Amino acid sequence: MDLQSLTLLVEILDAGNLSAAARRLKMTRANVSYHLNQLERSVGAQLIRRTTRRAEPTEIGLRLYQHGVAIQGELLAARESVTALGEGLQGRVRLSVPSGYGQLVMADWLIDFKRQYPGIVLDVVFENRIEDLLRDEVDIAIRVIPEPPQNLVAREMGPVRYVACATRAYAERHPLPVQLDALRATPVVTAAVIGRQLRISAYQGETRREVILEPTLISENFLFLRQAILAGLGVGLVPDYVVQEDVRRGDVVTTLDDWRLSIFGTQMFMLYMPNRQHTRAIRTFIDFILARVRPEEAEEAQSQR
Questions:
Q1: For 256, left (φ over 0), alpha (ψ -120 to 50), or beta?
Q2: Which of 7, 68, 230, 245 is the most exposed place for a label (fewest CB within 10 A)?
Q3: Is the pLDDT of residue 79 over 70?
């Protein structure tokens, strides 16, 4: 058994199957299968249970996988230590952020991070779907979801509050809905949903309601949705950060403020793969962003050092 064999095992289990591992390793599937068979022969035990969809580790395979991940982490740390001698922090972070939150809230944070750590390459993807982090080789994803996937580490970044809103001019021409059911007869501007219908959840104390709507304008691009709301095309159902400056200036007014509205979820999460030895660049980025969304925790941690 050698490091290359352990690396192969880690890649197969991380990728989920032999075909995906072959693509990541730029090898043929037959070649990956051959080397896996050779490793299992040298160990004298089956390491992976192959199914039509996924590769699952046996007990011995899981133990070897954990050793392989740890060894890879130590090697990576060693390379970073050598690289860092006489230089600033370097590395690469591939980040996936929601289009609206990424552009309207996180953009300034990302620019500040780059100014502070110019040697770190930031590769930022603006994407709203919950993609496979391994498949897309994403280190960190920021998402609004009801519950984080169990196979990922989830760090809470705070609540997300949706608002029903429209321009002041629109509100003067059209009565804004003051009851949830009135939204059904309202032209709604909101984010993408599957199919034509939108199921919105609303909470008021212990009361929970669901209203099914058919929006008049749907898009994944929250900057475009903001433009549509400002153009007076209807009542927007968007996170408050999309229109907070417009509300502050008085250009946009809100309604149904007694209800806590939710479309995709009420919590923002930072997601990343477990059992990974993160690079110093990734660890630094995680700490930097969490300090922005949890400043009180960052100050407490700083005072304890």
A1: left
A2: 245
A3: no
Q: Look at residue 134 in the predicted model and tell me its pLDDT.
A: 53
CB of 65 within 8 A of CB of 15?
no
> Considering only CA atoms, which of 72, 63, 65, 60 is closest in space to residue 13?
65
Distance CA 248, CA 257 (A): 15
Domains detected in the chain = 3-84 (1.10.10.10), 91-157+267-304 (3.40.190.10), 162-262 (3.40.190.290)
Q: What is the pTM of this model?
A: 0.66
Range with lowest mean pLDDT among 143-147, 186-190, 268-272: 143-147
SS3 state at 28: coil
Alpha-carbon span 130 to 107, nearest angstrom: 20
In whole angstroms, how far apart are CA 87 and each of 43, 74, 84?
42, 20, 5
The span from the CA of 244 to the CA of 160, in Å, is 13
- The label of the residue with tokens 């289990």 reads 13
> What pLDDT was estimated at residue 177?
93
Q: Please give the pLDDT value at position 305.
A: 39
CB 201 within 8 A of CB 213: no
- Sign of the alpha-carbon torsion through 62, 67, 72, 77: positive
Nearest partner of 275 among 69, 116, 110, judged by Cα: 69
Question: If you average pLDDT over residues 168-193, what whole number do you get?
Answer: 91
- Phi and psi at residue 28, in whole multiples of 5°? -80, 155
Q: Where are the beta strands (DSSP E) in 177-301?
A: 188-191, 198-204, 207-213, 217-219, 235-239, 252-255, 260-262, 267-272
Angstrom distance (rounded) from CA 164 to CA 253: 9
Provide the pLDDT confidence category of residue 273 given band limits of 50, 70 and 90. Answer: confident
pLDDT for residue 189: 95
